[in-house]
Design goal:
This protein is an alpha/beta fold. The chain has 6 helices and 30 strands.
């Protein structure tokens, strides 16, 4: 069995973080996001190859992951000649496939039981199976309506309150049969949600849904990116590096240097090479990437600082995200929802 990861998007909702860093390698506790999806696919021993469908900065991704050595699964790469949409990318990546394929959107983190999804697909002899997840506010999403036998009946794009008949949305995980790909035009931008799936319904083909009400998140916005870190720290989502850690754990690398007089409060994550000077405070839900420096009496509160950041003396960084090589000057304040791209400089005494 093969898997296709749709990882060709530009990550525009996460900018400026993704200007120089493709979304599949955005770090989560210093670990590229794509690792978490590969971890999930490794649940299935039948998956012997993961095909990465790329378009944006593909070389950066391939250089980082290679052919999957040490990951327990072989990786291969397909680079779209132009953005082809979700269905166009599936056809382009899977045009030579003859066996059942699992497809993942490139921004989904979940703990869904993939074996159960594949089992349903095979039991029903389906042409396609879609994973759905319930949401609290159905008006904010496109909904997927099913019948009592889990057959998909229709898609409702952001319905009005009076049009709502369900609360289940597309979770971005599919099991597909390649003999249906010929209805997707070659090398044409085509949507899996708006064109491919509706064609299955229109033709009366077996198209079923697996409803999953466990952990699921789309990491594609700064708010969700922060949330997934907190969910892992609190073990709402059981994943490395906090999966087996005790509550309020301070995960501090042995290769970090924490001076006497510095305060480190859990849960938090401090990567290798970090230097925290006397009087500095690292508050709960903070993440410091490799080689970061936090100067005397600076405070980092509920923030994510990527590798090689420097937080100046008496500075405050609260509820913010800083890309690589950012410099926050002395007595500067970043407070609430600030997102800085790589190599940003906040001068002394500035307030953001």
């Amino acid at each position: 069995m093969k898997a296709i990861l749709l990882a060709g998007g530009k990550g525009t909702r996460l900018r400026p973080l993704t200007i120089h860093t493709p979304k599949p390698i955005v770090p989560i506790f210093g670990r590229p996001f794509l690792h978490y999806q590969i971890d999930l696919l490794r649940q299935l021993p039948d998956v012997d190859e993961v095909i990465l469908s790329l378009n944006y900065q593909p070389r950066r991704i391939e250089e980082m992951f290679g052919h999957g050595d040490g990951l327990g699964v072989r990786l291969s790469y397909v680079v779209e000649p132009a953005p082809l949409g979700t269905a166009g990318a599936v056809r382009y990546a899977g045009q030579a496939l003859e066996e059942t394929v699992i497809v993942f959107n490139g921004d989904v983190m979940t703990q869904v039981d993939l074996a159960a999804v594949v089992r349903l697909h095979r039991e029903r002899k389906a042409k396609a199976t879609i994973v759905l997840t319930p949401v609290e506010n159905p008006t904010a999403y496109g909904l997927v309506e099913t019948d009592a036998e889990s057959n998909v009946r229709r898609f409702l794009e952001k319905p009005k309150p009076e049009e709502i008949t369900c609360n289940t949305i597309n979770a971005g995980i599919y099991v597909l049969e390649p003999d249906t790909f010929d209805r997707i035009p070659k090398e044409t931008a085509w949507s899996i949600e708006r064109s491919y799936f509706p064609s299955l319904v229109e033709r009366g083909e077996t198209f079923v849904a697996y409803v999953y009400d466990g952990y699921w998140i789309d990491i594609g916005t700064p708010e969700k990116y922060v949330q997934v870190h907190r969910d892992i720290m609190t073990r709402r989502f059981a994943a490395p590096p906090f999966a087996s850690a005790p509550p309020d754990c301070r995960l501090v690398s042995p290769a970090a240097r924490i001076e006497d007089g510095a305060t480190i409060e859990g849960p938090c994550f401090v990567d290798e090479g970090v230097y925290v000077k006397p009087g500095a405070r690292i508050a709960p839900y903070s993440v410091l990437g490799r080689q970061c420096v936090v100067e005397e009496d600076a405070r980092v509160e509920g923030s994510i600082v990527w590798a090689n950041g420097r937080i100046g003396r008496d500075a405050l960084v609260r509820d913010s995200i800083l890309g690589r090589h950012c410099h926050v000057g002395r007595n500067a304040v970043l407070d609430g929802g600030i997102v800085l791209g790589d190599k940003s400089v906040v001068t002394d005494y500035s307030r953001l």
